[in-house]
Design brief:
The chain has about 80 residues and is mainly α.
């Protein structure tokens, strides 16, 4: 029974490797990571700005700072 399990596992591994290679492998993965990089950086910046404003409100160190998202973008999202 152990031999059958081993054969099934090896066969599944071979099928997975073939599917990975067919879909593009590491080359495609690297290009996708490069494409997501700028979007991730923009979200990181917006999150940092939001946390700064929240800190100012919670600590009472003054009025909340203006958001990094321009007013035009906010109106487009609402509209």
């Amino acid at each position: 029974m152990d031999v059958v399990n081993l054969i099934i596992a090896v066969l599944a591994l071979v099928i997975a490797i073939l599917a990975y290679i067919r879909t593009g492998g590491l080359v495609d993965l690297r290009s996708q990571v490069k494409a997501v990089g700028p979007a991730t950086e923009a979200l990181r910046t917006k999150t940092a700005d939001a946390l700064d404003r929240l800190e100012g409100v919670v600590r009472g160190s003054g009025p909340p700072r203006s958001p990094s998202v321009p007013e035009e973008e906010r109106q487009e999202r609402r509209g």
